[in-house]
Amino acid sequence: MWKRVVSLSSLISYSKSKATYGVKIWNSPSTLISTPVYYGTLFKEKNPLIIFVLGGPGSGKGTQCIKIAETFGFTHLSAGELLRKEINSENGHIILDTIREGHIVPSELTVNLIKKAMESSDNYKFLIDGFPRNEENRITFERILGVEPNAVLFFDCPEEEMVKRVLNRKEGRVDDNINTVKTRLKEFSELNPHVIDYYTKRGKLHKINAVGTVDDIFDQVRPVFAACEAMK
Ligand SMILES: Nc1ncnc2c1ncn2[C@@H]1O[C@H](COP(=O)(O)OP(=O)(O)OP(=O)(O)O)[C@@H](O)[C@H]1O
Ligand SMILES: O=c1ccn([C@@H]2O[C@H](COP(=O)(O)O)[C@@H](O)[C@H]2O)c(=O)[nH]1
Ligand SMILES: [Mg+2]
Which ipTM value was assigned to this complex? Predict the structure, then answer.
């Protein structure tokens, strides 16, 4: 059996231990994040570093993820983008209707897309943007992938600012209109707090004030990832 400890920063740290009878355990070298996780055979070789990136519609998750990915060598997987790319597939009508109405796509569908994208990447550092949106999403991810995130970023933004940003975004998204935004915000305000509470209790949550310039916000994000630079 071997064990390697990689300390990313005082905020994120983890170690890798070889699977024994299909069980892997994430440890921390001190009192930092310590999360026993049961693995199946998935990711036996990859030992992924997973950061969930949460926040309401228009809070700036995608914008910040692009900067994090460029600066710290992460692969950026936007759950919404993975779903949008599937709109022409077999399940496409379910996805399109759900997105257009501002609801949440069935968990297994989204989780399997995330899993496929992670498996087909050469990288082991992943930003999962806009997921999990509710407790069912979170539990389904843990069940199918057999792993928890190492840390969770939450971009905290007032509703008024989020609405303004979404309505000013000119990317032709079917859900960037006032009616759908209202539904998305309603679901977000009802469901996201449960996910936030869960990760707060597990000591994994890093709340970021999402008001300010893109660079100001990135200055708050940077320390969470600073020690990753050495691993690029
Ligand atoms: N700090 C900021 N100040 C002003 N505008 C911003 C800021 N960050 C991002 N934006 C702009 O706001 C819009 C929404 O940002 P972005 O797409 O990153 O949000 P998001 O959280 O990914 O939203 P969604 O959940 O809808 O995908 C974009 O047009 C982006 O350019
Ligand atoms: O985990 C997810 C992520 C997204 N959706 C659906 O997609 C749209 C757009 O997502 P963005 O993160 O804003 O790109 C979202 O409103 C949901 O309808 C989802 O169901 N599950
Ligand atoms: Mg986005």
Answer: 0.99
Q: How far apart are CA 73 and CA 86, in angstroms?
A: 26
Instruction: For residue 162, give its domain range.
Output: 58-230
Q: Is 119 a member of any domain?
A: yes
In the structure, which protein residues have their CB atom closer than 6 angstroms to any atom of ligand 2? 57, 78-80, 83, 98-99, 102-105, 110, 130-131, 133, 137, 175, 184
> For residue 168, what are its two tokens?
């000013």
Substitution site in 53, 104, 167, 188 for ligand 2 pocket (most atoms within 8 Å of beta carbon)? 104
Q: Domain count of the chain?
A: 1
Q: What is the dihedral of CA 19, 5, 74, 213, to 10 degrees?
A: 140
8-state DSSP, 43: T
Nearest Cα residue to 209 out of 168, 171, 161: 161
Tens digits of residue pLDDT in 101-147: 999 999 999 999 999 999 999 999 999 999 999 999 999 999 999 99
> In this structure, what CATH number is given to the domain that contains residue 109?
3.40.50.300
78: in domain: yes
Q: Work out the widest C-alpha separation in the chain, in whole angstroms.
A: 56
Q: Is residue 38 part of a domain?
A: no
Determine the distance separating the centroid of ligand 2 and the alpha carbon of 98, expressed in angstroms. 9
Task: Please give the single-letter amino acid code of residue 133.
Answer: R
Q: Is residue 14 part of a domain?
A: no
